[in-house]
Design goal:
The chain has 14 helices and 24 strands. The protein is α/β, with parallel strands linked by helices. The protein folds into two domains: about 210 residues, Alpha-beta prism (UDP-n-acetylglucosamine1-carboxyvinyl-transferase, Chain); about 210 residues, UDP-n-acetylglucosamine1-carboxyvinyl-transferase, Chain (Alpha-beta prism), CATH 3.65.10. Strands 22-23-1-24 form a four-stranded mixed beta sheet. α1 packs parallel to α2, α5 packs parallel to α6 and α11 packs parallel to α12. The longest helix is centred in the middle third of the chain and has 13 residues. The structure holds uridine-diphosphate-2(N-acetylglucosaminyl) butyric acid (EPU).
Length: about 425
């Protein structure tokens, strides 16, 4: 299996072009199931998760073709398929988001029930509650969820113990757009990725109001027609490179970003001592005289709070800060697999329930570490960039799921990082 080898301590400088958002693109790709005619998507990142979604959609009669200019064209050509099989769905939990749109357009949808996940307990009860609330009949049998009946609309409340649900909201929205009546989603997810999906659907002819707020009002329409769309920038990728710049006190600028989507992250990065020059579509880290990072507490929350998808990278940063920081996970209270791996590099981290307590240290030394999930692998790479000696990050297939050309982007700003292919 491939490894990523990092030799720490190099000085970084330069600019990083941020890709389109994986988590915005995935549900928009699934929306091809409710749209008639071709869709042309720009700014879609070339990632394993996107390939996986294209494969699942292909099994459901949606063709997808990358164009020479990097855009992705999709079209539902065979609308008779309605079953997403286990072998494809198990490669990626996000594929559960085909359920709502397939049901709405084809009258029935059968999707493998998602299995376990390293982030902890990840149920789909809210997805099913939402769909049931707008008319779905739901049967769970043989490891599959089958949704049938017609979409009639209704009022649903979509929050659970950990707040709103991103893909649950997307699933219900994509069904409700073709409903016979009006759907009101109370406590809808506010994430920019959900807003991007809604704006895209409206561009195809949907009637969604309240986008970006807790109450989405969706008036069903008869049909949707394909359009051209440019996916929003990846705020998580941008925040990852900014954390990296902060750790090394490096003059690095991230370009093609949407700073308005990053308010909570920028707040915490600045609290940690980063001097950020925020432009309209770029953010520059200006090296500070002391180069010191300040211990900073962070609590992850649904948007507009601090994203759980930056928790591991922020933890890697706090490992080098002076003082003690407390990082609390309110979205996935078990999402701390990276803490033990960071400890292998010399980090001092203690777990207390949903919190990690980090005592900053100047001395990290390279070691072999194991990536447990996508964002954990990014956190380990960041720590490797400041550790003495070399760090080998194993199970890099996780990083390929969500960071486009990460080695090349880091090499271009001066990092000593390479992929070692095991033969
Ligand atoms: N939840 C329920 N019931 C449900 C659905 C969710 O209790 O039916 C809980 C979850 O267990 C969690 C919380 O609600 O505690 C939030 O989960 P959510 O449904 O919002 O997560 P998701 O939609 O499955 C997306 C991202 C994740 C990101 C989360 C939270 C995509 C493809 N995935 O997942 O991204 O961590 O929102 O922001 O959009 C990643 O990119 O690395 C990643 C894991």
């Amino acid at each position: 299996m491939d490894r990523i080898r990092i030799r720490g301590g190099r000085e970084l400088r330069g600019s990083v072009a941020i890709s389109g958002s994986k988590n915005a693109a995935l549900p928009i790709l699934a929306a091809a199931l409710v749209v008639d005619g071709p869709i042309l998507l720009r700014n879609v990142p070339r990632l394993k998760d996107i390939d996986n979604m294209c494969r699942i959609l292909a099994s459901l009669g949606v063709r997808s073709d990358w164009q020479a200019d990097g855009s992705l064209e999709l079209e539902a050509v065979d609308k008779t398929q309605y079953c997403a099989p286990y072998d494809l769905v198990r490669t990626m939990r996000a594929s559960f988001v085909v359920l709502g749109p397939m049901w709405a357009r084809r009258g029935v949808a059968r999707v493998s029930y998602p299995g376990g996940c390293v982030l902890g307990h990840r149920p789909v009860d809210l997805h099913l509650k939402g769909l049931r609330g707008i008319g779905a009949r739901i049967d769970v049998e043989d490891g599959y969820v089958t949704v049938s009946g017609s979409v009639r609309g209704g009022t649903i409340y979509l929050a659970g113990n950990y707040g709103s649900t991103v893909l649950g909201t997307a699933n219900v929205v994509m069904a409700a757009v073709l409903g016979k009546g009006t759907t009101y989603i109370e406590s809808a997810a506010l994430e920019p990725e959900v807003a991007d999906l809604c704006h895209f659907l409206n561009a195809c002819g949907a009637h969604i109001q309240g986008i970006g707020s807790h109450l989405l009002t969706i008036e069903g329409v008869e049909t949707l027609t394909g359009c051209e769309w440019s996916v929003i920038p990846d705020r998580i990728e941008a925040a990852t490179y900014l954390s990296c710049a902060g750790m090394l006190n490096a003059p690095v600028v991230v370009e093609n970003v949407e700073p308005r989507h990053m308010i909570a992250v920028l707040d915490r990065l600045q609290a940690a001592g980063l001097d950020l020059d925020v432009g309209t579509d770029s953010i520059r880290n200006v090296p500070t005289a002391s180069g010191k990072l300040v211990a900073t507490d962070v609590t992850t929350l649904p948007y507009p709070g601090f994203p759980t998808d930056i928790q591991a990278q922020f933890m890697a940063m706090m490992v080098r800060a002076s003082g003690v920081s407390v990082i609390t996970e309110k979205v996935y209270p078990e999402r701390f697999m990276h803490a033990n791996e960071l400890a292998r590099l010399g980090a001092r981290i203690r777990r207390e329930g949903p919190s990690a307590i980090i005592e900053g240290t100047d001395s990290l030394s390279g070691a072999p570490v194991m990536a447990s999930d996508l964002r954990a692998s990014a956190g380990l790479i960041l720590a490797g960039l400041v550790a003495d000696g070399h760090t080998d990050v194993r199970r890099v297939y996780h990083i390929d799921r969500g960071y486009e050309r990460i080695e090349q982007k880091l090499q271009a700003i001066g990092a000593d990082i390479e992929r070692i292919r095991d033969t």
